[in-house]
Amino acid sequence: MMDYERPDRVAGVLYAEDFDFPVPADDQPNAHEEMEHEPEVLPPSYTDEDLENARRAGEEKGRREERQCLVLEKEKWQIGVEKKTLELITQMNAQSEDIVRKISEEAAAVLLSQMAALFPSLLQDMGKKERDAVLCKIVPFLKRAVQLRIEAPEHEINYLSGLCAQAGVSEVDCHVNDTLAPGDFRFSWPEGQAFRNAGSIAQDILSNFKFLN
Q1: Which residues of 66-94 are buried (b: 16+ CB within 10 A; e: fewer)?
Q2: Which has the higher per-residue pLDDT, 107 or 77?
Q3: Which domain holds residue 137?
Q4: How large is the C-alpha radius of gyration of the chain?
Q5: pTM over the 0.70 mark
Q6: Domain tally for the chain?
Q7: What is the CATH number of the domain that holds 161?
Q8: Could you tell me where the beta strands, DSSP code E, fall in 41-171?
Q9: Res. 59: pLDDT tops 60
């Protein structure tokens, strides 16, 4: 340690030697000496084998990443195809159900139309048979009737009055009523009446056919 004491110091006064001074240039370490103490960093040295191995590793990594991308693209494509296929199947099922429903509705409409067209003729054929079956049961009781009134279509009045005459009915009053369906009739006498009115039932059935159609 250097002695900076001076003989002319005055008490209470600070002098330069009272403070730390920078180290003289001669005492500073030499930059060359510092560099000599630092470890030397050498650039990496690669052999041809190292370079070949690195090239192969890079190629393998690239192929691996490419395969992964192909797998992902394939999965994405399969998912898209499955989705489109399901949508197409759903659409086809809906269209098929709609077609089947329309065919069923059209077939039912045609069937009902045919039944409605055949019903009047069927009613006419069956009406006469049913009429005769009903008359066979009630005519024997009509012979006790007085002043029997008959209402029936014009082409059946004579047939009905003839049956009543054969049964022993003495007095018959015939009235043509063409509003009655074939096979329908209406007998009335003071004590009661008997009738067959299948025509009104047939009209209700035909109306239902039209409603369904």
Answers
A1: eeeeeeeeeeeeeeeeeeeeeeeeeeeee
A2: 77
A3: 101-212
A4: 62
A5: no
A6: 1
A7: 3.30.2320
A8: 148-152
A9: yes
